[in-house]
Design goal:
The protein has 51 residues and is mainly alpha-helical. The chain has 2 helices and no strands. It has one domain (4-50). It has helices at residues 4-24, 31-50. Helix 1 (4-24) runs antiparallel to helix 2. The longest helix is centred in the first third of the chain and has 21 residues, at 4-24. The radius of gyration is 12 Å and the shape is elongated. InterPro entries: DUF465 (IPR007420), DUF465_sf (IPR038444).
Amino acid sequence: MQTTHQAALETKHQMLDRRISEEVHRPMPDALALAGLKKQKLRLKEELANL
């Protein structure tokens, strides 16, 4: 059974995935911003795994 918290985390994870994809496909991706987004995504993934 999926909780509201878990659904919110999954939504944030999907949004970060889209933002990462957008950044990667820019003509000159910002490596620092990309690294930050990937760290946030990893933290969310770990939190989801612990639920």
